[in-house]
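Researcher: Please translate sequence to structure tokens.
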Amino acid sequence: MSITVVKKRHTIKNTVMSTLDKVILFVGKTFVGHTHDYTMLKEEFPPEKAWFEFVQVLVDLGYQGILTDYDGDDIQIPHKKPIDSGITRSPLMTMLLALLLDSGISIFIIKEQL
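Model: Translation complete:
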């Protein structure tokens, strides 16, 4: 008989903003791993300023509340799929984020405004 013991790891994370072409625009300060993504964003970019007013922003579901707290005409977050439903409200956005999130990384993308 063998017993495997897995130790918990101390993780860290940062807010990273990039373009769709994967050009990194911003790397935030380091937080402990249990800090929520949206909490990190609010600390680094206080909602009182219009940070995202003139850019298109695509975020994952880790940023619930961004639409109500931040000003911006083009902030996009996918709809959370109902528990017992295989239907999504925004299939293109959900599919795009599913492909990008395959590695488990939280996403914050800024697209240049034309």
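Researcher: Any highlights?
Model: The mean pLDDT is 79.
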